[in-house]
Amino acid sequence: MQILPFIQQDPLLQGNHVNPVLVLGLGNILLQDEGIGVRVVQKLQHDFLMPAQVEVLDGGTAGMALYEHVIDRTHLIVIDAVKTGRPPGSIIILEDEEVPAFFHNKISPHQLALSDILAALLIEGKPLPEITLIGIEPVRLKTGIDLSECVLAKLDLLIEMTVDYLSEIGFEAKPRTIH
Within a 10 A sphere around the Cβ of 127, how many other Cβ atoms? Predict the structure, then answer.
């Protein structure tokens, strides 16, 4: 897992020990399109400066180990490959209660773990963050490190959608200046 090293705690968070927003990329980069969530957060980390209140995390396939990273967030933005039966390359956006309901029908270890994390928060009486899933229907999930051409062609769109959503909720990601 990678967390941006330059993110600092905002003193306005009144004792909260985590940044209120978590952008979480899920997936296995060894299974082609399954790694799209990780690829998106890697590009976000490389290409953008995030406000101090936003943490960008490569969650890979960490499963329940991500629990501590989700506690006490106000917003959770998940980027992932999702199998919905829609045409390959279709973009899927789900919000709040749509997300746990969707994951109950999934067959993927990391997706089931996210559902388990949300259930554990509820059982412990912790508030659920506002959740947005930005997903894409994969083309190939076979062993390999390359994204399919169809999914790779949507990589920049997924990044743009994530940055736009952050802006909508009041957090401006700034492109890094590349010299």
Answer: 11
**Distance from C-alpha of 127 to C-alpha of 4, rounded to nearest angstrom:** 25
State how far the Cα of 66 lies from the Cα of 115, in Å rounded to an integer: 11
Q: In what order do the strands lie in the sheet with 75-81?
A: 54-60, 21-26, 75-81, 130-136, 91-95
pLDDT at 152 over 90: yes
- Tens of pLDDT, residues 39-67: 999 999 999 999 999 999 999 888 888 89
Mind giving me the DSSP string for 6-72?
T----GGGTT-SS-SEEEEEE--TTBGGGGHHHHHHHHHHHHEEPPTTEEEEEEET-GGGGHHHHTT
Contact between 34 and 81 under an 8 Å Cβ cutoff? The reply is yes
d(C-alpha 88, C-alpha 148), whole Å:
10
Q: Name the pTM for this structure.
A: 0.84
User: For residue 173, which phi and psi values (nearest 5 degrees)?
Assistant: -85, 135
